[in-house]
Amino acid sequence: MLEIDELGLEPTDRYILETIIKKFDGGPVGISALSAATSEEKDTIEEVYEPYLMKLGLLARTPKGRIVTKLAYKHLNIKYHNQAKLW
Length: 87
Known about the structure:
Blueprint: H1 11-24, H2 31-38, H3 42-55, E1 59-62, E2 65-68, H4 70-76
């Protein structure tokens, strides 16, 4: 009913990951661009969503921006297609 999956992700968590994958080719993406693309406040992303996604190993912060990990692709059942990226 709440659409929470087996990892405890809610729809917004999945939407953030999917947005990074589909609009930003998995990242890196800055917080301002991610905020604009998802219509979520920057502070909300940083304080509410990112900590849990990072704890699960689905999202990582790099000096260039946020990136989605291979584990996130697997969890979302999206084929990882950019073999040039090293995570």
